[in-house]
Design goal:
single chain; 3 domains; alpha+beta; disordered N terminus; 11 helices
Length: about 600
């Protein structure tokens, strides 16, 4: 057993709080959103006397680094979320407690829940706070819920400034384990305050699944930087080693959903320092952290232009890997790039990209360029790997932000005919939230799997300046390659021969128009139950039953009044009896 309610991580994982205790807000109707189902509330009396318990197995789960991020994760030392684009996240819970004075015979009627949504702040800000995936109507800067939860739920919001001016303020003071020192600087977070309903109507099904839609990371756009060749604007990048310059540069960055720009930020890394401390220096808090000299910026700018032209966006949450985690920053970078149809590659020791987009041939390889007569030409992937159908899977806003598969697979009829059967797989894009974008990326994969290659050619020094991602024309008629467009996949120097080995793959220019014409069909949207609907199921309100309950409550009040009157009369009778006894004993004058 992990213990009652386990240990909820507290304030950046520095302190663990054993969230135990009896009382209404921690009682049978109390649950943790996204971790388990909520207990029903039968009557007010049963609620008041209940004691909190949550299964140890639920609390002992390791927070997922991939897959659904719609649920709330709980645990000590959780991996830091890095929120990208406009997306929903259930949050990483760091504090939860019931507290407050006894009100209407109900102890601990208040609850404080603190969830973080992204590190590496500040991010753009809150779009919508939600309960059971339904808007609460809370302003972007925090405040009271409207509608069904009005009067029972409040939220204090921060976007992760460095430093935050103050800690998130609960709606009611006095929350144990929370104070002015817990600022969570650099972390976008919400402090939820909930009030227990003595009548057992609001939140009758338990605390709703809390979460929020945010607009995430800010990033540098070289296209809006006048100091970058071809750029125009006030945005800037500066090395974190130059504290003052990086301070000034950070202030110029803006929100983006472009895969190319988000990938560039993640490759360069996100850095924080405490400006209140004189002489403080920047330290990396997220991302790979390559120096700008180690990144081919123009490749990321090219990807940004392609994504903007195609209408491709990136959105979701990746997690900075914890020690021992199977997730890596390299995999996070690949997931971000996959949303833009790109893959990372290295050229001359610098990070570049292979982008799925029409290219211009940079040169032509002829017989005169060969340093070796031996050429290896492969017809492509093996039969099993030459898929002809893919089912795109993406994260859908309309389906509670879960990953859903398109009901219409992406298939190339000519490939199916050639293969004589359907060969298909499901393909999930972790950071894609648009169905047509997922379908287009699937089409690119199918077409890439049919390209000619691998082609191995050893060339002379004239072509040494080209590397992975570059398009060349291979014109070697004797080897069956006549004006064949090819993309360099790998480049290997052969210093002993003063030559370079290129491994290339064929490129069909017409595939781009075909791939970008694909669309997907979303599955039917399920009926989303709102908090009020769940409460009705948990504690149905029949008018006749409510009338009887009201009558019983009135009668109980009368009984309580009569009992008080009887106690008063008993006290008076006792006083008279005592006086009579004293008179009889002669100890008191009449």
């Amino acid at each position: 057993m992990s213990g009652t309610l386990g240990k909820v991580a507290m304030v950046a994982g520095l302190v663990a709080l054993a969230a135990t205790g009896a009382g209404a807000i921690a009682g049978a109707g109390w649950g943790i959103a996204g971790v388990g189902s909520f207990s029903s509330i039968a009557t007010a009396a049963s609620i008041a006397g209940a004691v909190a318990s949550v299964g140890a197995s639920a609390l002992a789960k390791t927070p997922p680094a991939k897959g659904s991020v719609s649920s709330t994760t709980i645990g000590t030392d959780q991996p830091m979320p890095f929120l990208i684009g406009e997306t929903y996240y259930g949050g990483s819970r760091i504090h939860q407690i019931g507290y407050g004075p006894t009100i209407k015979k109900v102890p601990n009627p208040y609850a404080l829940i603190v969830d973080t949504y992204s590190g590496a702040g500040p991010i753009e800000g809150l779009v919508d706070a939600m309960a059971d995936f339904v808007s609460l109507g809370i302003p972007a800067g925090g405040g009271a819920a409207s509608g069904y939860a009005a009067g029972f739920l409040w939220a204090a919001v921060q976007r992760g400034d460095i430093p935050e001016p103050s800690a998130l303020q609960p709606h009611w003071a006095g929350a144990p384990g929370w104070g002015a020192d817990y600022r969570l600087s650099g972390h976008a977070a919400i402090a939820w305050s909930l009030l227990f309903d003595r009548d057992g109507k609001i939140f009758a099904s338990g605390v709703p699944q809390l979460g929020a839609v945010w607009r995430g990371q800010l990033a540098w756009d070289p296209r809006k930087d006048s100091s970058y060749t071809g750029g125009q604007g006030a945005q800037r990048w500066a090395s974190p080693a130059d504290t003052a310059a990086h301070d000034a540069a950070r202030a110029t960055w803006t929100f983006t959903e472009c895969p190319g720009l988000v990938a560039l930020k993640y490759a360069l890394g996100a850095y924080h320092r405490d400006p209140r401390v004189a002489g403080s220096t920047y330290r990396k808090v997220a991302g790979v952290g390559l120096p700008i000299a180690g990144v081919i910026i123009e490749d990321f700018v090219h990807l940004a232009n392609v994504c903007d032209a195609n209408g491709w966006k990136v959105g979701g949450v990746v997690f900075e890997p914890a020690i021992g985690s199977s997730s890596t920053r390299w995999q996070n970078l690949k997931d971000i790039l996959a949303a833009g149809g790109a893959t990372p590659c290295f050229r001359n020791g610098r990070l570049g990209l292979k982008v799925s987009a029409p290219r211009v041939a940079l040169d032509t390889i002829t017989e005169a360029d060969l340093a070796d007569d031996e050429i290896v030409v492969s017809s492509g992937l093996g039969w099993e790997d030459r898929l002809n159908t893919l089912i795109p899977k993406y994260r859908s806003r309309d389906h509670k932000w879960e990953y859903v598969a398109s009901t219409e697979p992406v298939s190339v009829p000519t490939f199916v005919e050639v293969d004589g059967e359907v060969k298909r797989e499901e393909r999930q894009f972790n950071l894609v939230q648009q169905k047509d974008q997922a379908a287009q990326l699937c089409a690119y994969e199918l077409l890439d799997r049919r390209e000619l290659g691998e082609i191995e050619i050893v060339v002379k020094p004239r072509l040494r300046k080209y590397g992975p991602g570059d398009l060349l024309i291979v014109d070697l008629p004797n080897d069956g390659l006549v004006q064949q467009p090819c993309v360099i996949m790998k480049r290997q120097p052969l210093p002993d021969r003063m030559a370079w080995k290129f491994i290339l793959s064929g490129e069909t220019p017409s595939k781009h128009a075909y791939a970008l014409g694909q669309t997907a069909v979303a599955p039917p949207v399920p009926a989303l139950g709102q908090t009020a609907d769940l409460d009705t199921v948990a504690a149905p309100h029949d008018p006749a039953v409510d009338a009887v309950a009201e009558t019983v409550e009135q009668q109980q009040q009368i009984i309580d009044q009569q009992a008080a009157l009887i106690r008063q009369q008993q006290d008076e009778l006792g006083s008279v009896t005592a006086r009579v006894k004293k008179l009889e004993d002669g100890t008191q004058e009449p």
